[in-house]
Amino acid sequence: MATQRRVNVHQPIRRAAVLTIAALAAGTLAACGANEEAGGGGDDETGGGAATIALLLPESATARYEAFDKPLFEAKIQDLCADCEVVYFNADQDEAQQAEQVDSAISQNVDVMVLDPVNGVAAASLVADAQAADIPVIAYDRFIEGADYYTSFDNERVGELQGQALVDAVGGPGNILMLNGSPDDPNAAQFKAGAHSVIDASELTILAEYDNPDWSPDNAQSFTTDQLDTIDPTTLAGVYAANDGQAGGVIAALTGAGIAPDALPPVTGQDAELAAIQRIVAGEQYMTIYKPIKGEAEGAAEMAISIVNGEEVADTTDFQGVPSLILDPIVVTADNVGDTVVADGFWSVDEICTADYADACAAAGLS
Asked: Which residues form the signal peptide (predicted)?
């Protein structure tokens, strides 16, 4: 059954990543009610009630969605339109459940739908359903064919940065494993293409490659463990892991195979999850990609309010024919944790430097 919660968005943000982005909706902040020009599904014949915006996120296993995307989006909507409401859904990585949630949002006559799909390809039909009900759709984080707008990061660049970091860390020829994201996630294909563009031109040799359903850390650990049955772990030069959850599974498999934490090969990641930042400080994970989610979430909120107000969405670029806000990813290693995720308030020193990481933090200059 579809899970939802209607909230009046008056929740404080626990942390705010400091990122300045171009205003997407200059001059649109005064009018917050739904109007006929907006093309939304709300009923304005009752006297012009406040607009309702649906936010549909794909899963809760990845820390970013509940901890950052949702509260940042809600807070920006509240800032731009105090009377607007957000109807929130999380699909828990269940494609059928997300389809039910889209139907629920349509039945509630929301004015705008912000959709981060479980399956980006299949979600094109969900977009068509919403648009048939006169509800504009903003594809959030993952591209959806036919969406009205899109906001995300330069995903191929993410893969390029990950691949280059691994090539640089190995510093020459070597054997690696490659763990990509879910085949159903269109972003995963872009990360993979970007990483291959660098790795394939390097001296690294990919011994085995895996497209991981649902981005599962457990699957990543099992795949790596299986590969280590035929590979001497000490001869592995590095591992490309497309996100931090998989990196954690890879590192668990490597340490389970007898590799000491201070002798682990370089392992990549993405999302700047707290556990990954701690592993990076401790020297267990080589790098992650930090995507300042504040810019993405607030950009989507600004797009939504522009649509609600019937005004043009400003400062977009074209991505596969869809007006888009595309942001830049940032590489994080032990050398710049303080200058990136800490400086932006994404994670605090106290959160990173718990007792288990106190010595590593002191060595990294974070204590």
From this structure: 1-30
Structural domain contains residue 345: no
User: Within a domain: residue 215?
Assistant: yes
Look at strands 85-90 and 52-57 and give their pairing: parallel
Which residue reads 């990481």 in tokens?
357
Half-sphere exposure of 135 (CA within 13 A, CB side): 31
pTM score, whole prediction: 0.79
In the Cβ-directed half-sphere of 56, how many Cα atoms lie within 13 Å? 35
Residue (of 316, 337, 332, 336) closest to 152 by Cα position: 316
Shared domain for 90 and 167, answered yes or no, is no
**Helix (H) or strand (E) run with residue 186 in it:** helix 186-199
Tens-place pLDDT, residues 202-227: 999 999 999 999 899 999 999 999 99
Claim to verify: residue 206 and residue 220 sit in the same structural domain:
yes
131-140 pLDDT, tens digit per residue, is 999 999 999 9
260-286: pLDDT as tens digits: 999 999 999 999 999 999 999 999 999
d(CA 67, CA 347): 11
**For 9-127, where are the E strands, in sequence order?**
52-57, 85-90, 112-115
CA distance 297 to 295: 6
218 assigned to some structural domain = yes
Q: Which residue has the higher pLDDT, 60 or 211?
A: 211
Q: Which residues of 241-275 are buried (b: 16+ CB within 10 A; e: fewer)?
A: bbbbbbbbbbbbbbeebebeeeebbbbbbbbbbbe
Is residue 261 domain-shared with residue 159, that is, in the same domain?
yes
Q: Tell me which residue range forms the domain holding 266.
A: 155-291
CATH number at residue 44: 3.40.50.2300
Q: How many domains does the chain have?
A: 2
Same-domain status, 38 and 135: yes
- Alpha carbons within 13 angstroms on the beta-carbon side of residue 91 total 24
- 290 closest CA partner among 226, 323, 338, 349: 338
pLDDT in tens, 68-108: 999 999 999 999 999 999 999 999 999 999 999 999 999 99
Q: Is residue 358 part of a domain?
A: no
